[in-house]
Amino acid sequence: MLAFAIRRLGQSFFVLVVMSFIVFLGVFAVGNPIELLVNPQADEAERLRATVALGLDKPILEQYAVFLKGAVTGDLGRSFVFNVPAIQLILQKLPATIELALAAMLIAVGLGIPLGLLAGLRPHSFVGRSIMALSIVGFSLPTFWVGLVLIMLFSVHLGWLPSNGRGETVMLLGVPVSFLTWDGLQHLAMPALNLALFKLSLLIRLTRAGAREAVLQDYVKFARAKGLGPRRVIGVHVLKNILVPIVTVIGLELGSVIAFAIVTESIFAWPGSGKLLIDSINLLDRPVIVAYLMVIVTLFIAINFFVDVLYSMLDPRVRLGSASTAH
Amino acid sequence: MLRTLRVALAAFALGAFSLAHAAPERSVSIGLQAAITSIDPHYHNLSPNNSMLIHIFEPLIARDPNQKLVPALATSWKAIDDLTWEFKLRKNVKFHDGSAFTADDVVFTLNRVPNVPNSPSSFATFTKPIVDVKVVDPHTLIFKTASPHVLLPSDLASVLIVSKLNGEKATTADYNSGKAAIGTGPYKFVEYIQNQHVLLKANYGHWAGEQPWDKVTFKILSNPAARVAALLSRDVQMIETVPTSDIAKFEKDANFMLADKVSNRVIYVHLWQWSDKSPPFVTAKDGKPLDKNPFKDARVRKALSMAINRDAISDRVMEKKSVPAAQLLADTFYGTSKKLKPQKYDPEGAKKLLAEAGYPNGFAMTVHGTNNRYINDDKIAQTIAQFYSRIGIDTKVETLPAGTYFSRATNGEFGYMLLGWGTESGEQGSSLRSLLATRNPEKGMGVNNRGRYSNPAMDEQLVKALVTMDDKKREGLIQAAAETAMNDTALIPIHYEVSTWATAKGYRYTPRTDQYTLAMDLKPVK
């Protein structure tokens, strides 16, 4: 198991280095940041001065070498635009995104699994059909549009919820969070629901399919025949057995929900890292773009690692399997 | 939770004590389009920054809503001779920390401007012409320039004065944190969070008198729909840059008010004239390169201008929030010629001119433009392409994000390029110099001449204008240069953007040509 973990860490590191090079090349190819940074009214001398000041006069491989050298010590470069370390900028914005993502996943899991189970156990009832119809709607409507409809309904017409921003935050373990204040919760509700909708539909469908399959299995029939109550049959025998694929998907989706909260963040002006990325791309703030992608890649790798661990706790066969492939 | 409770209790207790005599706090929230990148007024020369920082800091000379120069920290200024300027400073002005403003602060500022580390776009352009500063007394300054520099007052209007006392060792980070963000302006700095908001409170001791707001919150709402929603739900009381598709809705609704004004920004086309070769993305209809550069022929340029129906673009693409353009600035600005009128739409005439120039069957080309930089930029490119198809030019359209587009346009990779230009000085001479003068980077001529248009006759008129100190005489020379260029279709002006602001009922904004959004220009109305 330890050898396997070490090998996996080595692979992860390799992925990180390759990613950094690809990202660096890609961002380099997009365009010259000087065009956007320097005021158009400025003269040639000023453009040249800025080019040198930002290190853009050096060839790309040299710039990459400088970046790698800094990255080893945890320095991912300074934002061209804000003149602060890129990583600091991202770490300042990341708590807001993670809070939003976790709230969304909480909604998705908290509603998705029970609703999916209900639909799976009663596939032909009115409730079951309604849940499925809802999940199709959740799948097919674009996040962007749903977000705007939510704002139009809850902010503009009803005036219940604020349309943008993060609201009041309090410090929890040194990180500002907004879910502990009423104002913060009000600000969090709509964007979290908006972001959750797609994942919610996904989890409903996944749980339903799993449940439908499981109830026909012999072990469920046997459990029933033994005279176990429906609560135990569903809670232990059905749910535990369908949880493995669901946990995998939750893990993967948690990564993507953090990485791709961009649309929701921009509609609700949620001050997270996704919005930072968009603004940085618009201004060609290369160090921030590269640092952001590195952080996200690291996050994905970490989440996948934890999913594997959780996996092996739910299903011992996985542990055996991974050990045998690792030799 | 606990904290909220405590705050609520405290507020309640305070409220109970002061209920009898406290006036309600007059606060206002404003939704901005673009992020503020710094509170350091000399770090990044970017319109959104300049617009924000003018609340906290002040220049010697300010610009009114029409970009006319008006006294601010200087009460008067005059050129003593071609190379010497005298500035008289305002007396009894105090910084936010109570210290007095004097000539030393101006000298300190001028020395700081070129030396801000890592600045992505420095303000040194504006201070460079000054080679010597003499303090005559605490409220009189003499500036010397190396050559006649008529734009000095205009340049200094872009330089915000910081305090020597607080700025001596201050870094950009100290300004962002508020430690050094101490100016003389009508509002004091409270808080700045990147990409999120800027909070200000009133400076009651300001020399110009009191402001109508005690507290101002600027929220960064870059998504246009989010900005509109924030106003509709009253999370903010004003937004800038109303999306054109929402203008009709606000116009009809009595709960909101629109304010708009022709801006200093022209949308125009540069035509590739780097050499006599066939320009990039311009070919014969069969795809073969042309034997010469059609854009070097004034008749072809004129035909391309005649083929564009500017009124249709203004009516249908821009919801009437644009004005057909004849030159580089709307004709209310300094140095513009009243003789120049927008080119009339004349597709038949355009065809005839093309035939005369040797292209009776037209040619093929691609219209290049941005898709996230100017108002409706991609729609304008599409519309223009349709007009060209009507006069027999096979036209394709390619629009790109600004980040990619500007680099490639600067490298001369496009033949027909749609661009925009805002004249911060408010006078046409500086635009002609940057966009149309024959390119000569050492002399600062043609810095943004991406088409490489060159006309010695216009250059001569312009150079003369740029060293003429007499305002009346200079204006005549700039007008003449503009007429020379525009009659030669040096570039194709499309329209001047109209900037729009929307306010909730009870608030009125005085719109500005420089597209700045200032709390000072927002007033409560009954």
From TrEMBL, chain A:
Domain ABC transmembrane type-1: 94-307
Membrane-topology descriptor: Multi-pass membrane protein
Predominant localisation class: membrane
Organism field: Usitatibacter rugosus
Protein name: Dipeptide transport system permease protein DppB
Cell location: Cell membrane
CDD domains: TM_PBP2
Gene Ontology cellular-component terms listed: plasma membrane
Automatic annotation (TrEMBL), chain B:
Occurrences of domain Solute-binding protein family (ranges): 68-440
Signal peptide as annotated in the record: 1-22
UniProt superkingdom: Bacteria
GO terms under cellular component: ATP-binding cassette (ABC) transporter complex; outer membrane-bounded periplasmic space
SUPFAM superfamilies for the chain: Periplasmic binding protein-like II
Molecular-function GO terms, alphabetical: peptide transmembrane transporter activity
Family: Belongs to the bacterial solute-binding protein 5 family.
Identification of the protein by name: Heme-binding protein A
Lineage: Bacteria, Pseudomonadati, Pseudomonadota, Betaproteobacteria, Nitrosomonadales
